[in-house]
Specification:
Elements (H helix, E strand, L loop, with lengths): L2 H11 L5 E5 L5 H9 L4 E4 L2 H10 L5 E4 L8 H4 L5 E5 L2 H13 L4 E7 L12 H8 L2 H4 L4 E8 L7 H21 L5 E3 L6 H6 L4 E4 L1 H4 L6
Parallel strand pairs: 1-2, 1-8, 2-3, 3-4, 4-5, 5-6, 6-7
The protein binds pyridoxal-5'-phosphate.
The site of pyridoxal-5'-phosphate (PLP) has 14 residues, from strand 8 and helix 10.
Length: 219
């Protein structure tokens, strides 16, 4: 199946309120151009170097999302152009994004990553940590970041009951935060294997890679 066929099939299946981030990591520019030509404008990458290389060579009306784990010392490379940073998982990182956004005269949209999976390898805040952050004075001082929502990754498992529980817990936290702490509007959850389930559980932004571009080959 071609990229454009895959993409069109996914797009027609998505409810209107759900934003599709086409995850193009490891894929060449030609693949992104093929997706771009079907009208896709939002692409997600998880490596800073690859993201900046692609930003420099591809059309300027692409919205680039950083979806991977971001190290503070690399924020400066993407701060001039990134549209949304999904995986903000510490105050230290948020503070650095704020600093680099200010230097670039920008306000950068961010999602706070919540640890919902049972796997220890995944990053993110706990519920207690995020509420502590959102109610702190140090958070209110960060004027050049805009927290527009939450992001989470479920455990990598075939057990849909578990995945559903994890998505539901993130949706519950999202509702709690948006009603009591911060007016957020974006819930980024769901990948190729579980985005339909994520949408059923309240996701309004899905990050889909292999179902569009095919399996990735890692060297
Ligand atoms: C790679 C990646 C995706 C996309 O994964 P697929 O299973 O290929 O759809 C989504 N989110 C994050 C954070 C990723 O790193």
């Amino acid at each position: 199946m071609s990229i454009s066929t895959n993409l069109n099939q996914i797009k027609v299946s998505l409810p209107e309120h759900v934003t599709l981030v086409a995850v193009s990591k490891t894929k060449p520019n030609e693949a992104i151009v093929e997706a771009y030509e079907t009208g896709q404008r939002i692409f997600g990458e998880n490596k800073v170097q690859e993201l900046t290389d692609k930003y420099e060579t591809l059309p300027k009306d692409i919205e680039w999302h950083m979806i991977g784990h971001l190290q503070s010392n690399k924020v400066k490379y993407i701060a001039p152009f990134v549209n949304l940073i999904h995986g903000v998982d510490s105050y230290k990182l948020l503070k650095e994004i704020n600093k680099r956004a200010l230097q670039n005269n920008r306000i950068i949209d961010c999602l706070l990553q919540i640890h919902i999976a049972q796997e220890q390898t995944k990053f993110g805040f706990s519920e207690e940590e995020i509420i502590e952050l959102l109610t702190s004075d140090k958070f209110k001082e960060l004027k050049n970041i805009n927290i527009i929502g939450l992001m989470g990754m479920a455990t990598f498992t075939e057990d849909t009951i578990q995945v559903k529980q994890e998505f539901n817990s993130l949706k519950h936290l999202y509702d709690k935060i948006s009603s009591s702490y911060l007016p957020i509007s974006t819930l980024s959850m769901g990948m190729s294997g579980d985005y339909q389930l994520a949408i059923e559980c309240g996701s309004n932004m899905v990050r889909v890679g292999s179902s569009i571009f095919g399996e990735r080959n890692y060297p």
